[in-house]
């Protein structure tokens, strides 16, 4: 907590010039806490006024920089003479740094590419052709007759029969171990 003395004495932190001696040498004390709260304590005979109301002597009264403080109705406190301490400045700077960090994070999120360290899964392309599609026979025009040339379809149909037989053999069940009828047809062994 920082305490500032206010009065006409030259050793006070805030000196008020008064030739009439209405303001005391140590008229008041302004206390500023580390959180930024400000209180004033009247130490005079002629009084200290906050927004036109006289405060009780030797009792701390909370004030802000918006309040009008006068000493014996002769002089007003110039808030520019009251320094802003590091705690307030530090809080303002910390808030500004925090806002800057958030703004940089938003910028990075919007404009940076996806994380290059994680490889993207490769998509394989598969081409599918229909083997059942019929090939059209070629037509040869002759001056007398129109003949159809034998196509590869006949050859394919003859070669397809052994292939179908192979598929049937593959679909046949393979022999398995004998089953026990007492245990829900589970294999023995």
Structure report:
This protein is of the alpha+beta class. Helix content is 24%, strand content 22%. It has two helices and 13 strands; from the N terminus they run βββββββββαββαββ. It has helices at residues 86-111, 152-171, and strands at residues 2-7, 14-15, 28-32, 38-42, 48-50, 53-54, 61-63, 69-71, 75-76, 139-141, 146-148, 179-180, 186-187. Strands 2-1-3-4-7 form a five-stranded mixed β-sheet, with no helix packed on it. Strands 6-5-8-9 form a four-stranded antiparallel β-sheet, with no helix packed on it. Strands 10-11 form a two-stranded antiparallel ribbon. A hairpin with a 2-residue loop joins β5 (48-50) and β6. It is rod-shaped. The relative contact order is 0.08. The mean pLDDT is 76.
How far apart lie the N and C ends? 87 Å
Outline: rod-shaped
Going across the biggest sheet, name each strand in turn. Answer: 2-1-3-4-7
SSE series: EEEEEEEEEHEEHEE
Please give the structural blueprint.
Blueprint: E1 2-7, E2 14-15, E3 28-32, E4 38-42, E5 48-50, E6 53-54, E7 61-63, E8 69-71, E9 75-76, H1 86-111, E10 139-141, E11 146-148, H2 152-171, E12 179-180, E13 186-187
Parallel strand pairs: 1-2
Antiparallel strand pairs: 1-3, 3-4, 4-7, 5-6, 5-8, 8-9, 10-11, 12-13
Labels describing this entry:
alpha+beta
Summarize the structure.
The protein is built from two helices and 13 strands; from the N terminus they run E-E-E-E-E-E-E-E-E-H-E-E-H-E-E.
């Amino acid at each position: 907590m920082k305490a500032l003395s206010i009065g006409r004495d030259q050793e006070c932190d805030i000196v008020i010039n008064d030739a009439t001696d209405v303001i005391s040498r140590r008229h008041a004390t302004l206390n500023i806490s580390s959180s930024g709260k400000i209180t004033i304590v009247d130490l005079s005979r002629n009084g200290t006024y906050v927004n036109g109301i006289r405060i009780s002597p030797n009792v701390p009264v909370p004030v802000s920089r918006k309040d009008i403080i006068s000493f014996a109705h002769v002089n007003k406190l110039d808030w520019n003479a009251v320094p802003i301490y590091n705690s307030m400045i530090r809080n303002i700077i910390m808030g500004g740094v925090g806002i800057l960090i958030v703004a940089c994070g938003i910028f990075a999120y919007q404009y940076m590419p996806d994380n290059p360290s994680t490889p993207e899964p490769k998509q394989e392309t598969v081409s599918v052709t229909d083997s059942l599609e019929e090939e059209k026979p070629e037509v040869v025009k002759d001056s007398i007759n129109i003949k159809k040339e034998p196509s590869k379809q006949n050859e394919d149909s003859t070669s397809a029969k052994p292939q179908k037989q192979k598929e049937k053999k593959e679909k046949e069940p393979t022999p398995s171990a004998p089953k026990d009828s007492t245990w829900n047809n589970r294999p023995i062994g």
